[in-house]
Prior knowledge:
This protein has 507 residues and is mainly alpha-helical. The protein has helices spanning 2-12, 17-35, 61-83, 90-102, 130-133, 191-196, 211-218, 224-231, 244-248, 266-287, 298-304, 311-321, 382-387, 436-445, 485-496; strands spanning 165-167, 172-174, 344-345, 407-408, 450-451, 463-464.
Amino acid sequence: MQALRQLVLEITHDFGNLRQALIHAGAVVLFSAVAGGMTAGYAADPDLAVPPGYATLPPGAADEIAAVAQEIDRTEAAALVLAGNSALDPYQKITTLGKLLLFDKTLSVNRNEACVFCHMPQTGWTGPVSALNATTSAYPGSVRTRFSQRKPQAYGYATLAPTLYFDQNKQDFVGGNFWDMRASGIRLGSPAAEQAEGPPVNPAEMGFADPACAVARLSLSPYRPLFEAVWGAAAFDIQWPPGVEQICSRPGPPSPGDPFPVHLSAGDRGRASAAFDQIGMAMRAYEASPDINAFSSKYDAVRAGSATFSALERRGYALFDGKARCNECHRDSGESPLFTDFTADNLGVPRNSALPYYAEDQPDAAGYAVNRLGVRYVDDGVGAFLAGPDNPNRKWAEFADSYRGKFQASSLRNVDQRPRPDFVKAYMHNGYFKSLKQVVHFYNTRDVLARCKPNDPGEKLTCWPAPEQPANVNTTQMGHLGLSNADEDAIVAFLKTLTDGYEPPAP
């Protein structure tokens, strides 16, 4: 293995035809494997399961996951072929590179989890498995029995979030990525690039114990030459220690006494860190492309004068801008509205007991307990970020208590995008809601309907459970809107017009 690795390294340092040949060879091999039904993704994964103490995997989930894996491989194969085109301009190079990185399963500890597994286009760049959305809400990581505490947040339009800052006039935080805003963008100047660096080293997601592992795996990739074409020939000029693949095949987190288990010289660590940042920046470049930010919804067509709302959609839009007060956080102003103001709020969303996270209180086979608090865990969102080690500005810590339970207001664009009418999408940070109707009904009646009793059959219809985090709940803009059932349906109809890919009906 070491000899093969060295040979690949030597070949890929050539700037001539061998570089393009390697890319084309990789694409042909990968495409042949997919076409021949030999995809080594989720379908063949013997460890696809849920944590001990949780229910079994939802019916149909394995088949859906296998289909998503095959789609990921097909997309990657096509991108590899494109990467071999010597006529690509700089924009095409970096966006193609970013796409390959997002669709690459080898950038996870067990070589089985691409970033896009949780963020596929057919669902607006969020979770693509209906059976998981309807049950667990969160998605399994590269270590299949590990789940995080939140549903996948959508990539769409996230690159347009500003670097996190505290607005003195509004007395509010604005920007960043992730539900809790912790990808501030302060270090790299891009929240999306910093967000992209999170999952590879999250033990419950892609699972590397060291960010250098992503760089080491990439150094053996068939699209390494494209990375070097974008970032320079010395990008992988790193002397890897013996056994680096064995080190990188052990799931994180690293031990406290050895936080960077890939032992590199100071110079090599600096180069590996730079390459890891470049991975994030390339992903951000693709996430900023029209593939993900298309601005092609019916709403956009109406603004352009090439389509008209139905009477129900028009009524919903008027409510959205008026009585329902939606646009106070999901702004519809500006040349190309993003339907978010990039602030955070505690909506009083109930706890989602279906999250496997609550059952992850015991060490797994690798000795890691994802959630040692078990059922006692409360997700404090932005407040936890501001109080924790990821906060880059010590002055912000004083706001931690006032932001407990707050989560970022995501863009509403593509909020209803789905591959088929019966596909279930999960909503809010914990996936508690399973339809837009439930979301709008909650905004309308949270403070009007009775509090649910345990196992109440009227939950989400005639009663609501208590908020997961009762501190800082927004009681001024929602909870008692006085909307009728028909009003709620009209707002849902309008939200459906925000789905990209609109095509006017045939005459």
